[in-house]
Amino acid sequence: MATERTFSIIKPDATRRNLTGKVNAVLEAAGLRIVAQKRIQMTQAQAEAFYGVHKERPFFRDLVTFMISGPVVVQVLEGENAVARNREVMGATDPKKADAGTIRAQFAENIEANSVHGSDSAENAATEIAYFFSGIELVG
Ligand code: GDP
After folding, report:
1. Percent of the chain, pLDDT > 70?
2. Of 43, 92, 95, 105, which is least surrounded by CB within 10 A?
3. What's the rounded Cα separation, in Å, for the pair 91 and 78?
4. Is the CB of 92 under 6 A from ligand 1?
């Protein structure tokens, strides 16, 4: 598998607890390189559009409210098989089901405030990267 890129978000529960560096250390130890990163405050419209695929889910409103409750760190990660590697190191959505050592097992508060987002396919990664970053911000 060639080098690929994925999109990641360090969510408000983690930035609030000053865990950006600790999350990044886990990502880097997993062989992922942070090739772009910025801390932003998402607007409601941006969060709704980003999570548009979930708009029929019962937790959609709560999820949007949570994602705009504080700053997030949006990131582009690069590495061998980066999409799958990041999903592996993130752990299961529900931290109670996440494997030991994963980011969510170590840091997540609950199934919603679960510290990180990661793209679930290379196609979604490309869309999500383009949503938050311009070409000039991606230096590889
Ligand atoms: P992910 O790919 O592991 O992030 O999971 P999903 O794409 O299924 O869900 C997106 C995000 O919605 C999750 O990361 C959680 O923040 C939130 N979420 C998922 N399931 C639930 C749920 O059952 N209840 C609540 N409140 N939030 C959820």
Report:
1. 99
2. 43
3. 18
4. no
